[in-house]
Each structure stands twice: as structure tokens, then as C-alpha cells.
Amino acid sequence: MSRTFALIPAAGMGKRMGADTNKQYLLLDGIPILAHTLKVFQDAPFISGIYVVSPEAEIPFCRSEVVERYGISKVRAIVKGGAERQHSVRNGLYAMDDLDPEDVVLIHDGVRPFISEAVLEQAAAAAREGSGAVVAVPVKDTVKVAVDGLITQTPPRETLWLAQTPQAFRYAIIRAAHEAAVNEGFLGTDDASLLERQGAKLTIVPGDYKNIKITTPEDLVLAQAFLKG
């Protein structure tokens, strides 16, 4: 049976949050958001190891004030990030070079602390059976496509999903996709897009609307409300 690992990009600068502290280190119920996220993977028995990607200058802080302070013993390495998220994920994948090609990698945003263990397990299982999996939720609102301020299309709502993380892949597949993107100068909006452009068929794993990415002050207020139940 292949193993399952987590790759947690946490190298963002959090400009939309408007805070002096990078968003992953903002406190949620007195604990850094990143620590909340890592604890989910720490507590999941099927996760064999965790790799965190951090801005290079913040690696000592991440290690001492998050990983060590909160007992995240599954962390194997804290890897320096890149200019874009895609570069950060690639750096993380290169640091995982002792993985078996069939091992599953769950790539999950460091500022999505409300992911459930059950969804992680479902995403990993889907990745083992196919080219990869994306956790997502159906859109609730009608979506309009507009060009120069004019509506050109209203896609059928039942075909539209909001992509979340984790996105799950076998190690050899996602590493090869990132290497191809580098060679071809392609910058995607998420990891799944690197495989989609190659014609891969990825599986949707239904997620949870609470699995928010905390990037704005409003998100932080909502996250506090989730914690209070």
C-alpha cells in the first residue's frame, strides 16, 4: 500500500489581509492558523509525513513557533518558498525526492484549517485510483462570463464547482507535471491545471463550505465563528 504525505504551501505574504504578520501566523483562537491546519494532518493516522513550504526568512520562526511549539512531529522538512505558489509547491516536491512514485501527495493551503480528516482520506483514495483529485464544492450563485463589462455567457450552474484544497496526486505524476510546466514556461492557477493541460481527467471529491481559505479580514471573522460553532 502506498503512503500518503502532505505538502503545505505557507509561503504567501497575505497582502489582502492588511496585517503586519503574514496570514498563516495570524492567531485563530490564540493559535496560529498554520498550526490549526498542520494539526489536522498530524492527527490523521494515515498521513506518513508533512512538508511545509515557508518564506526562507521565516523558516526558523515556523519551526520554533509553530512546528515545535505545537508538537507537529510529522513535519519532515520546512522548505523555502518561491516567487509564486507554483514555484513553492515545486520546491516542496523536489524536497520529497525520497518518496515512492506511487505515494500520494495531498497539496493543501496552509490557511485552510477547517479541512476534515474524512475528506483528506477520500481525496487520497481518489488519487490512487486515477490521475488525481480536487476537493471542491458546487457553486451556489449564478455565474456570469463577461468581457469588457458585458455579459457573454451564463454557464449551467450544475457544471460549476469551486476548487478548494487538498488536491491529491501520486508523487511521480504531479512532479512530472511541474517539471513540464517549468520546461514550457507555463504558470497555472492551481496544481490540477498543470495536469488538465496535458489532458488528464481528474476526479472531483465533494468538500465542505467551511473549508475556507483565510485571506481577508472577513475570512478571519468567519473562521472565528466556525470555531465557536
Automatic annotation (TrEMBL):
The record marks R157, K213 as: Positions MEP for the nucleophilic attack. Transmembrane segments: none annotated. The record marks R16, K23 as: Transition state stabilizer. The gene is ispD. GO terms for biological process: isopentenyl diphosphate biosynthetic process, methylerythritol 4-phosphate pathway. This is 2-C-methyl-D-erythritol 4-phosphate cytidylyltransferase. The lineage of its organism: Bacteria, Pseudomonadati, Thermodesulfobacteriota, Desulfuromonadia, Geobacterales. PANTHER family: 2-C-METHYL-D-ERYTHRITOL 4-PHOSPHATE CYTIDYLYLTRANSFERASE, CHLOROPLASTIC. GO terms for molecular function: 2-C-methyl-D-erythritol 4-phosphate cytidylyltransferase activity. Pfam families: IspD. Its EC number is 2.7.7.60. Catalyzes the formation of 4-diphosphocytidyl-2-C-methyl-D-erythritol from CTP and 2-C-methyl-D-erythritol 4-phosphate (MEP). Pathway: Isoprenoid biosynthesis; isopentenyl diphosphate biosynthesis via DXP pathway; isopentenyl diphosphate from 1-deoxy-D-xylulose 5-phosphate: step 2/6. It catalyses: 2-C-methyl-D-erythritol 4-phosphate + CTP + H(+) = 4-CDP-2-C-methyl-D-erythritol + diphosphate. InterPro entries: IspD, IspD/TarI, IspD/TarI_cytidylyltransf_bact, ISPD_synthase_CS, Nucleotide-diphossugar_trans. The keyword Nucleotidyltransferase applies. It comes from the Bacteria. Signal peptide: none annotated. Keywords: Isoprene biosynthesis, Nucleotidyltransferase, Transferase. The keyword Transport does not apply. Belongs to the IspD/TarI cytidylyltransferase family. IspD subfamily.
